[in-house]
UniProtKB/TrEMBL annotation:
It comes from Devosia aurantiaca. Keywords: Oxidoreductase, Transferase, tRNA processing. GO terms for biological process: tRNA modification. It comes from the Bacteria. This is tRNA uridine(34) hydroxylase.
């Protein structure tokens, strides 16, 4: 087996844990995405791999987990020996390890885009902006003639962003086109730098800006997560925490666990200040959904069912999910403390 992308992961922390996690994306021409879906799903299911992979004519995106042997076999299948041929080589891949299964089932989904922008002129497989390594990012964004744009959605920006970054205030990525049309000008904004959580959104955004006539377009390679991982806190230009789409909710410098939680009613991330707001009621409402009675009623009913399940001595599905999230968060806090202790030693 070729074992592409797998050797470096052997030296990662917690590499002795039973589950290896692979997060990946690649913009590539996959006009045969529909034909690739079933063989990919069968390959994963036959090896006990679980998670979600999105296939589209523009590429692949997703996160999966399984045994080290299974994930290494999948890497070989995707990048070398499988029906993708060499089209996915050079994919952005991140490995980590977990002591419990992160996913319950395997899903391969076919979608029109791996990142929904609805702008056919944006094609990262043909044209993309200049990648900037995290170590070089500060020197770029410190330049006065660089326009810095956060391509994430408003609830993500609210937790943290780079100093002097522009906030498009978008509810979803498809609105980014309108923001560009109304606020950016290729004749005026000669240098535009963009960033997102892991690199995929700003890669597509950079392709879109190039299609609109912008000449010098830059984007942070590996996204905020890679920046927080490798740039020392004392040199960082990032303020706050970075929202992540898993049970951690947010991370800070060194990818240490953040303080954010999710509102159970509207799923909006909440800071310490948000949880002190008069409109916050644990499990029922928060400042961001204060006027949405339908969400409050649904959350209150879910909480009531969880309370009834506890009284009967059984476990409600929502209670089980919340408990699992709390355990995972506590486990990550403990691992972070252990890591700090080892570093001090």
């Amino acid at each position: 087996m070729t074992a592409i992308h797998s050797n470096a992961s052997a030296t990662l922390p917690q590499a002795n844990h039973p589950y290896k996690v692979m997060a990946l994306y690649k913009f590539a021409s996959l006009p045969d995405a529909e034909a690739l879906k079933t063989p990919l799903a069968q390959f994963c299911c036959n090896r006990g791999i679980k998670g979600t992979l999105i296939l589209a004519p523009e590429g692949i995106n997703g996160t999966v987990a399984g045994s080290t042997e299974a994930i290494d076999a999948l890497a070989d299948y995707l990048f070398a020996t499988g029906p993708f041929g060499t089209r996915l080589q050079g994919a952005e891949v991140k490995y980590s390890f977990a002591d419990t299964a992160p996913f319950l089932r395997m899903k391969v989904r076919l979608k029109p885009e791996i990142v929904t922008l609805r702008a056919p002129e944006a094609d990262p497989s043909k044209a993309v902006g200049t990648y900037v390594e995290p170590g070089d990012w500060n020197s770029l964004i410190d330049q006065n003639d660089v326009v810095l744009v956060d391509t994430r959605n408003d609830y993500e920006v609210g937790l943290g962003t780079f100093q002097r970054a522009l906030d498009p205030a978008t509810a979803n990525f498809t609105e980014f086109k309108d923001y560009v049309a109304q606020n950016l000008d290729p004749a005026r904004d000669k240098k535009v730098a963009m960033f997102c959580t892991g690199g995929i959104r700003c890669e597509k955004a950079s392709s879109y800006l190039l299609s609109q006539g912008f000449e010098e377009v830059f984007h942070l390679k590996g996204g905020i997560l890679k920046y927080l991982e490798v740039v020392p806190p004392e040199q960082s230009r990032f303020q706050g925490e970075c929202f992540v789409f898993d049970e951690r909710v947010s991370v800070g410098h060194g990818l240490e666990l953040g303080n954010a939680t999710l509102c159970r009613a509207c799923r909006h991330p909440l800071t310490d200040a948000d949880r002190q707001h008069p409109d916050y009621q644990e499990g029922t409402s928060c400042p961001f959904c204060a006027g949405d009675e339908a969400k409050h009623q649904a959350a209150a009913e879910r909480q009531r069912q969880m309370d009834l399940a506890r009284q009967r001595g059984t476990m409600h599905l929502g209670d089980e999910a919340a408990t699992a999230a709390k355990k995972a968060k506590a486990r990550k806090v403990m691992q972070a403390e252990q890591s700090r202790e080892r570093n001090r030693g």
